[in-house]
From TrEMBL:
Cofactor: Mg(2+)
Annotated Gene Ontology cellular component terms: early endosome; endoplasmic reticulum; Golgi apparatus; plasma membrane; recycling endosome membrane
Residues at the active site: 407
Keyword Endoplasmic reticulum recorded: yes
EC number: 7.6.2.1
UniProt protein name: Phospholipid-transporting ATPase
Reactions this protein catalyses: a 1,2-diacyl-sn-glycero-3-phosphoethanolamine(out) + ATP + H2O = a 1,2-diacyl-sn-glycero-3-phosphoethanolamine(in) + ADP + phosphate + H(+); a 1,2-diacyl-sn-glycero-3-phospho-L-serine(out) + ATP + H2O = a 1,2-diacyl-sn-glycero-3-phospho-L-serine(in) + ADP + phosphate + H(+); ATP + H2O + phospholipidSide 1 = ADP + phosphate + phospholipidSide 2
Amino acid sequence: MLRWIRQQLGFDPPHQSDTRTVYVANRFPQNGHYIPQRFADNRIISSKYTVWNFVPKNMFEQFRRIANFYFLIIFLVQLMIDTPTSPITSGLPLFFVITVTAIKQGYEDWLRHKADNEVNGAPVFVVRSGSLVQTRSKNIRVGDIVRVAKDETFPVDLVLLSSDRADGTCHITTASLDGETNLKTHFSVPETSVCQSVSQLEALQAVVECQQPEADLYRFVGRITVIQHGEEIVRPLGPENLLLRGARLKNTKEIFGVAVYTGMESKMALNYKCKSQKRSAVEKSMNTFLIIYLVILLFEAILSTILKYAWQAEEKWNEPFYNQKTEQERNSSPILKFISDFLAFLVLYNFIIPISLYVTVEMQKFLGSFFIGWDLDLYHEESDQKAQVNTSDLNEELGQVEYVFTDKTGTLTENEMHFRECSIKGTKYREVNGKLLPEGMTDDSPDGSVAHLIGDEVLFLKAVSLCHTVQISYDQPDLPLGASDPFSHVNGFSSNHMEYYASSPDEKALVEATKRIGVAFTGSRGETMEINTFGKLEKYKLLHLLEFDANRRRMSVILQTPSGGTVLFTKGAESAILPFATSGEIEKTRLHVDEFALKGLRTLVVACRHFSPEEYMDVDKRLTAARTALQQREEKLQEAFDFIERDLQLLGATAVEDKLQDKVQETIEALRLAGIKVWVLTGDKHETAVSVSLSCGHFHRTMNILELLQQRSDNECAEQLRRLARRIKEDHVIQHGLVVDGASLSLALREHEKLFMEVCKNCSAVLCCRMAPLQKAKVVRLLKTSPEKPITLAIGDGANDVSMIQEAHVGIGIMGKEGRQAVRNSDYAIARFKFLAKLLLVHGHFYYIRIATLVQYFFYKTLYDSVYLTLYNICFTSLPILVYSLFEQLVHPHVLQSKPCLYRDIRKNSLLSFRTFLYWTVLGFCHAFIFFFGSYILMGEDTTLMGNGQMFGNWTFGTLVFTVMVITVTLKIALETHFWTWMHHFVTWGSIAFYFIFSLFYGGIIWPFLHTQDMYFVFVQLLSSGSAWFAIIIIVIICLSPDVFKKVLYRHLQPTSTQKSQQSLSAPPAQALSCMESLCCYQQGQSGCSRLASLLDQMTGHCKAGASNCHTSSRCNRWAGHQGAMIMDLHESPWSFGVVN
């Protein structure tokens, strides 16, 4: 019970040993000396809270906020000493803020729990008590024997025991872990591979000893001890024996494995970064502004305390006749009295710190996040998936992104390759309806492609269908009676349903293409490779496989032909094949390869070499010697490969299209125009990654590509970085791109971070390949912590992307084909990469400008009877700014997408700069000054303004000031509004009306539950005075007029790009809205200030008196009519309508 409680609170004890011992099927030793090791259960946890720690952990996080902690202190002070205001004025808003925030964060975490429960509750089969038992994934224990069927993902990290294959092998894909889609072969030890039934596994006596869990996906050290007939047989275990959680079983009917790492100790989970509380740049700015206001508050309190004692220095004011001190007050300590007075002033002035700011921000973020899910432009119809918000705290951060880190496989691409064209002996061919036709010919042969193909073409197709590492799965699908397999008689031969699994998507696409054309690879049996050439079965003996490597950039096979000859087929990059070709149409093929590359196609060049018996004997001898060498094996193999792969006969080239996701190129270009740099971080091979970067527009053909690859030492890496830095300075190229691999990156980050960052920042695009998951997170952290502190965004679809998604300021998961790990651990989830453009350029833009104005406005409007103090920020002035922060649009969403450069206007937290903050603060102080002294000048000297001759008292004067304040701050946000809807009108004028109605009821009735009622009949008396109404109107106009003139002049003299777009949107220059109209156009197009707009336009010379284009009301009508089509673009809100001013 104690251990369970510790686990719930996050204090699981660490392992006590460097190794772990796993007894297969949990068959523990039957002696009293064995103490079982304790292991984690198999639950995956992406949530932040539990039932037990939610309250303390959430309270701790909330009171880390300066405003919340401050108001808690104020509330406690009000409880302890006699203060001018009731504790309710601080306690009630604080309780409301804390409660609303806790509910919101609890709801979001509940959604994470729900997603975790789906994974943890997935059905699995384990061997227990001699039978196969179905249980839930979370119930798997270390030592359990788990059965996994074809196409299922592994629920834990397993050591492979056996498979349905006689040799005990299986094939898996790890695309969700490292982004590689190639098929990997894993092995079981011979002693366990024969255990293919439940009964045999139940009788198996074996012990696995291995290292404790670590995050490295490619490292596993262990051994298995199998007891057979009383004898212990020990076999080593390595990465090839370990099946990782998240990988998927392919081309194998079923496997059995023993669980060694479970739950959060699995390698996939260890590559997750610890989930931390992300805070947006806006929230950090809010905390900075709050500190400034706290300093102002302390200064006011200290100054007021000093002035109080200065005022009381005279005896007549120290103890006036109407306020006699008690004996206790006369004898109290001067220091304690000073502190008490200071705290009293602190409480009196504490309302300059807007407690309701946080609750309004929380409500704005929570309600605003629904707009992302409701946006039909972010809905993917094919998969029936809409955008998802997991964390609404970062909405505005979407408008501040400077770097995007993206995965490649499944994020930029669909991970689907399609054969498009080829070049054979200098002639270009394309596939049309399963036929290989020369360029320019049409599909007019009814007999298929056989009649068109001669010896060279057939040899090329044979080379493509044999030079690979493709494997085949034969599955006979369940077909209804009388139905037939559509693939059973393709091109004249019979086969079951064949599914190809390849080491790369290119190979799979090429082999599938040759099958469609008529040369089908039908499988490998031992050392024999079989192809069916237009219905004729041919068998080739595989003599040697020359594996692909990054240095050679090619792979080859040496085969014995059916006629007994020996031939080498090789394929690879053009630079790796053409220099070694001595015959064939070399120049024509080179030209065709360049043409294919310009189309964004992935190219491979194919060649062959025929060996005489003597030549082959020499080749075989060299290869055997190199492969068995104990010293310098890699160098000797390289020499042997170079000797063999020469004097080649060029056959042709292939062109394969890596199917990108829809609109990837346009999205990357839009992000680049918006000033956002895109980095691609992938675990894939260098050549594949570069090819995709070129095809998706991440790298341009005119870009100077720099490489930091295969660095083996710190000095070598540093020297290469210096060369790249010099090259960037010397080359007069507009854009550079950088390619770096994982090994070189590790060296660069170890000692040369500064130099590496200098090179990266001078590059327009960066591509990192062969990256481990934690390396991706390190790269993101490197940019985050650089001196510029840029805002980063990471996007990916697999478990290998989780660490960088959690590390970045904003993490986005793609709902792809590689599981849901990325989605569960992300802040936002979308179905396709193309949706990122609207998410940032539109939603991010809107969220940022809304919340920036909201924050500034609250400090601006931030006193009197305790009820009014409590309701001022909560009721009287909260709804207009809340509606503004949900629906405001400076320009139409279509404009933001079509003009990505507008995103630059809001970068670097520009709307919350210190200059802007200072402007709003000074404006607030000026308005407060005008409120008080304007009311005093207009009303203070006249003491008989009441109709009955009654004098104005302090409460009446204070009510006048408060009324002017409520009306002014409400109209101020109305001036800031560009997008008017019926909701804006309702809350703006409704808030003012509610204040009047509330004041009439509150002061017009004697409330029995109130101890004192100083406001009784005060508001009614105030409204009965015509002079009071006159004063209200005059003061409001005086306060708002300078702000209106400032906006007009700035828009005319120094307009931003956004303001220019407002003026020119969908209207000729002569018909564009004037600056004044953009402030005052209402829903039906009537301009509330048309005469003033015309007058200002004439004064500034923008239009002549009497000119037709100065008729603002008609122009507003035209504008409103045009905007009828924009109704549903109020951020996809189904109940709102309006126009963008």
